[in-house]
């Protein structure tokens, strides 16, 4: 009989698992799982974790093939809006919770487009916080993925390699142009942070080999592309665990701006409790809780017996 497993990927749950005060809010069952499961620390973000789940041989590079996963061409780069905050002699990088709408994002892209015209580049807004830069030729410069850099100093993550100086020059020109942008003046008057730069990244190479999953469920902005590349079976909406598959993967994100306790209780009732019951009946051989930017917890039928339901 094939080894049945359930892997639960929990994006943004690190704010709970990685903080001692917030961990006190976890339901008792989750506290027991944390105490009894085998834990492996891994600070990789959600994009890197998903790449590893769908392609275990994917390299742990500074950058990821995000432009390709966003359906860009081989000559594409991610060029995502961000806020750079000066802190004495440092620049701190912020890309989350920018309060940027799609219409406003398109206005910013139109404002910046002349900077890219001289070398045949075209900005394309896919979502408010996800932009692509379509280029005439492949880029050989090395960039750093933005994931995990929120609030970090940018110094160690700037472009390197071929043509890096030109990309840094362009990056500085973008900041200068946005400094007096009327769109930013309106944002600051409304109490919002300015959009004062773009973060170039995402020109990593797609892996050659992929791992197929018998069932994938949930939502993530790269999930459907990864499912297609790996020839996995996809069910977008799955509210709870009800049947063990050979290899099942579900993504259950945490929303900081929604009620924490309701989400935690839902995760326990809909996924943890039925999965632990399946472990105890040997219908499921392995349960993995994968918390990006924190680590993973592994439960087996033996360790599941320690969890009282």
UniProtKB/TrEMBL annotation:
<protein>
    <submittedName>
        <fullName>Regulatory protein, RpfE type</fullName>
    </submittedName>
</protein>
């Amino acid at each position: 009989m094939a080894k049945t497993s359930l892997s639960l990927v929990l994006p943004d749950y690190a704010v709970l698992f990685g903080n001692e005060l917030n961990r006190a809010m976890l339901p008792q069952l989750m506290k027991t799982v944390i105490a009894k499961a085998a834990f492996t620390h891994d600070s990789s973000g959600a994009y890197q974790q998903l790449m590893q789940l769908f392609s275990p041989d994917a390299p742990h590079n500074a950058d990821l093939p995000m432009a390709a996963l966003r359906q860009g061409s081989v000559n594409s780069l991610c060029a995502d809006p961000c806020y750079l905050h000066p802190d004495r002699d440092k620049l701190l990088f912020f890309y989350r919770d920018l309060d940027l709408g799609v219409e406003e994002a398109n206005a910013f892209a139109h404002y910046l487009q002349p900077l890219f015209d001289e070398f045949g580049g075209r900005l394309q807004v896919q979502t408010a916080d996800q932009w692509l830069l379509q280029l005439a030729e492949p880029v050989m410069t090395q960039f750093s993925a933005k994931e995990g850099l929120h609030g970090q100093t940018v110094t160690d993550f700037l472009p390197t390699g071929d043509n890096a100086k030109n990309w840094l020059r362009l990056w500085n020109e973008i900041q200068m142009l946005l400094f007096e942008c009327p769109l930013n003046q309106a944002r600051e008057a409304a109490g919002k942070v300015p959009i004062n730069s773009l973060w170039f990244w995402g020109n990593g190479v797609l892996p050659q080999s992929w791992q197929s999953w018998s069932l994938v469920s949930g939502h993530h902005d790269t999930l459907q592309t990864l499912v297609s590349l790996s020839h996995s079976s996809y069910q977008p909406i799955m509210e709870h665990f009800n049947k063990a598959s050979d290899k099942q993967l579900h993504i259950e994100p945490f929303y900081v701006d929604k009620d924490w306790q309701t989400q935690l209780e839902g995760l326990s009732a809909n996924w943890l409790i039925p999965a632990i019951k399946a472990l105890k009946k040997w219908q499921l051989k392995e349960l993995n809780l994968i918390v990006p930017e924190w680590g993973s917890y592994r439960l087996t039928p033996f360790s599941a017996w320690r969890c009282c339901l």
